[in-house]
Design goal:
The structure holds two protein chains of two kinds. Chain A is mainly alpha-helical. Chain A contains twelve helices and two strands, in the order H-H-H-H-H-H-H-H-H-H-H-E-E-H. Chain A has a two-stranded antiparallel sheet with strand order 1-2. In chain A, a hairpin with a 2-residue loop joins strand 1 and strand 2. In chain A, helix 4 runs antiparallel to helix 9 and helix 8 crosses helix 9. Chain A is globular and about 80 Å long. Chain B is 35% helix and 30% strand. Chain B is built from eleven helices and 14 strands. In chain B, strand 4 and strand 5 form a beta hairpin. Chains A and B meet through helix 1 and helix 6 of A and helix 2 and helix 3 of B.
Chain lengths: 274, 311
């Protein structure tokens, strides 16, 4: 008899991890990570500006690219995880085994999450070592920032899996995942604040702001102010807004994206025909 | 004893296209069944429903008495399947793929190790056991997929066009492998559009067209129901009297002279009747140089059941 669903999830996770560890994508993520860290650590002394003596500012600067890394992890390790089984016909080997579809999705998701969490953890580890070595201490909330980054990993991966379950082509799901989180949502966040003057609290990218905002002491608050600008004898009143996600609300938003994304990915994959 | 494979009014619709129409088929344990039909007849659709790759729009499908749609995990527990030509994970070796499938099937690691060596040897892939599958040919992938299907020693084997895409040597080897498996009391359900392959390998034949089952019977019965064709080449020219005498022999439907010393004879019945005919031909004084089948009785049945534009 086939083993329990839980045991099968562990088996799927193990072999998905093995596939990722042997993939070129992991090498690309590793290379990118190395480039980001080298630029952050080598560039300041090279151009003569030196390292920031304030641990909080230095940590924030070092972690500024964490969002890009997480988006790339979701794109590389989640965006085609399901669709490739259908598109490349590997599912013909996997699905006729005595295993439920949701077991396969969960096993794959855990593997994607583990490899992404590994990349993020490595980024934080090098950052902490570098900041402690140079400034003698780290920003107070670095560990919280790390936890929020992990939450963001889970939220974004769930949406990547949803795209992967919906589309028939890996190209579409990969491109959509990347551009949604790298371009489309950041544009909505930016336009929302600067033009429409609303707080885009509902987007995953806006919520992910807590990863870096938590490093600031005190935690930043929304700023909405009006300024008067005179141009050619005409005075105009402009509203300038700068919004920050509240931690509780942002975590709730990330959680909702994670739950809805994963449940829909499970449901669609179960219903999907080969 | 529970029937190995049962379909009850099995139907599948893709939009307006009815791929399967109330298919009723019962396959008893231990037989090898060839599933024949033209392209688009519903063969792969049936197999994909049986392997839980598709959901039926109506009816039921059972494997060893377990409903495939409601309990796919339990139903597929003692089933091995090769559907179309599955692709393999390029980052893994055949041994790792078998280990993956074996662990999903709940086999112990010792059993997986032992069985992997055995099945890879059976499919002649032992030499490539430790190589990543990235550069494997279609035939090599097909063999690894067959190894994965038989790894857990299932009671039912389902093959969808197992020799498609293979070179002639690969086709012969896969056919021989299926014949070896047949001797081990597996229930084998194999779709194909190669009639001679089915006649050579299978005990029973199901012919399907436009999603409906046309006939399901033993190869022997279908052979007797159809008309086989044989080509006869004599050492000397065949006279008009000898030709007339052949025409008058039992079970001979028609005789066509294609050369001075060659006849094309249509025979009612199967292999026994063709054998008897050879004896009779010799008895009327024709010295036979070559005697070979040009069309099997199953081909005849198939051609009568499936209209020309379909096949």
């Amino acid at each position: 008899m086939p083993p329990s669903d839980l045991r099968q999830v562990a088996v799927v996770t193990k072999y998905e991890l093995l596939k990722y560890l042997r993939s070129k994508r992991l090498l690309i993520i590793g290379a990118l990570l190395a480039i980001i860290l080298i630029l952050n650590l080598v560039l300041p002394p090279t151009i003569g500006s030196g390292y920031d003596p304030d641990p909080m500012t230095f940590t924030s600067g070092m972690l500024a690219e964490i969002g890009i890394l997480i988006v790339l992890c979701a794109t590389f390790f989640g965006a085609d995880a399901i669709v490739s089984e259908f598109e490349q016909k590997t599912g013909l080997l996997l699905f006729p085994n005595a295993v439920k579809r949701h077991v396969l999705v969960l096993g794959k998701f855990i593997a994607s999450a583990m490899i992404s969490v590994g990349a993020v953890a490595l980024y934080y580890a090098v950052t902490v070592i570098a900041v402690v070595a140079i400034d003698g201490s780290i920003a107070a909330n670095t560990s919280l920032s790390f936890l929020y980054a992990l939450a963001y990993v889970f939220g974004i991966l769930a949406i990547a899996y949803l795209f992967s379950a919906i589309f028939r082509s890996s190209v579409y799901s990969i491109v959509l995942t990347f551009f949604t989180f790298f371009l489309i949502l950041p544009i909505i966040d930016s336009l929302g604040a600067s033009i429409a003057h609303f707080k885009p609290w509902f987007t995953l990218t806006f919520a992910s702001g807590i990863v870096l905002d938590i490093l600031q002491q005190p935690y930043p608050v929304d700023v909405v102010r009006t300024v008067e600008r005179t141009f050619r004898n005409t005075t105009r009143t402009l509203t300038v807004a700068q919004y920050y996600p509240s931690v509780a609300q942002a975590l709730a938003v990330i959680f909702v994206y994670f739950i809805i994304g994963l449940i829909l990915a499970l449901y669609i994959t179960k219903r999907r025909e080969m | 004893m529970t029937d190995a494979i049962v379909t009850e009014n099995l139907s599948k619709q893709f939009g307006q296209f009815e791929a399967l129409k109330d298919l009723n088929l019962t396959i008893e344990p231990g037989v090898c069944v060839g599933y024949l039909g033209p392209n688009g007849a519903g063969k792969t659709t049936t197999i994909k429903i049986l392997t839980s790759l598709l959901r039926p729009t109506g009816g039921n499908a059972f494997l060893n008495g377990i409903d495939v749609v409601r309990n796919p995990k339990e139903a597929l527990a003692s089933v091995g399947a090769v559907v179309e030509t599955p692709q393999l994970y390029p980052q893994l070796t055949p041994l790792e793929i078998l280990s993956y499938v074996g662990q999903l099937r709940g086999l112990d690691s010792d059993v997986i190790r032992e069985r992997s060596v055995t099945v890879l040897d059976e499919v002649k892939m032992s030499d490539s056991a430790h190589k990543r599958t990235k550069d494997f040919s279609t035939g090599m992938k097909q063999r690894v997929a067959i190894a994965a299907a038989i790894l857990h020693d299932p009671s039912i084997l389902i093959f969808d066009e197992p020799t498609i895409g293979l070179d002639p040597r690969g086709m012969i080897e896969v056919r021989e492998l299926i014949m070896q498996l047949k001797e081990r009391d597996f229930t084998i359900f194999m779709s194909s559009h190669l009639l001679y392959e089915v006649q050579e390998v299978c005990d029973k034949v199901a012919i399907v067209d436009k999603g409906a089952l046309l006939v399901y019977d033993t190869v022997a019965n279908l052979s007797n129901a159809g008309e086989g064709g044989v080509a006869l080449t004599a050492v000397e020219p065949i006279t008009a009297e000898q030709c007339a005498a052949v025409q008058a022999l039992p079970n001979v439907r028609s005789v066509k002279r294609v050369a001075t010393s060659e006849l094309l004879i249509t025979v009612e019945g199967g292999l026994p009747e063709q054998s008897d005919l050879l004896d009779h031909v010799k008895s009327i004084g024709i010295r036979v140089a070559f005697y070979r089948p040009v069309r099997s009785a199953i081909e005849d049945v198939y051609l009568r059941l499936v209209p020309q534009e379909e096949s």
